[in-house]
Design brief:
By secondary structure, this protein is α+β, with helices and mostly antiparallel strands. It has helices at about 10-20, 25-30, 40-45, 50-60, 85-90, 90-105; strands at about 1-5, 5-10, 35, 65-70, 80-85. The protein is built from six helices and five strands, in the order ββααβααββαα. The N and C termini lie far apart (about 40 Å).
């Protein structure tokens, strides 16, 4: 049993899912393997609403997986996001998830959509 912030997790898998679970967190994290501005991230994740993207980014930042940097030197404001050292420890996990998805799509003969290109 693991406990973080007064929440209990019965196993290491459930602890991992605390950080990457849900519909969009893993998608956002894999796009942030390289630092990106908010606008770049929004373009790459076309099907995520702005509200959902903002909320998920906030949660990922609160969990210590990403950092948010606001550049205020001249208008307009620019905001970029990148993985923290802790967040980078997820890269092998995200790579394996992506490989599994590619293999499954190939096995099921699924066509690749251009929504995330």
């Amino acid at each position: 049993m693991y406990s973080i912030d007064n929440k209990r997790y019965p196993c290491s898998t459930s602890l991992t899912m605390k950080y990457i679970g849900g519909k969009w967190k893993a998608v956002i994290l894999i796009h942030l393997i390289k630092k990106k501005r908010y606008s770049e991230l929004k373009k790459e994740c076309k099907v995520i609403t702005e509200r959902t993207l903002s909320l998920q980014l906030k949660e990922l930042e609160e969990d210590g997986l990403i950092t948010r940097t606001v550049h205020v030197t001249k208008p307009p404001l620019k905001v970029d996001y990148e993985l923290t050292d802790f967040g980078r420890t997820l890269i092998p996990v995200l790579d394996i998830i992506a490989q599994w998805g590619d293999q499954t799509a190939e096995t099921l003969k699924l066509e690749k959509s251009d929504l995330f290109k």
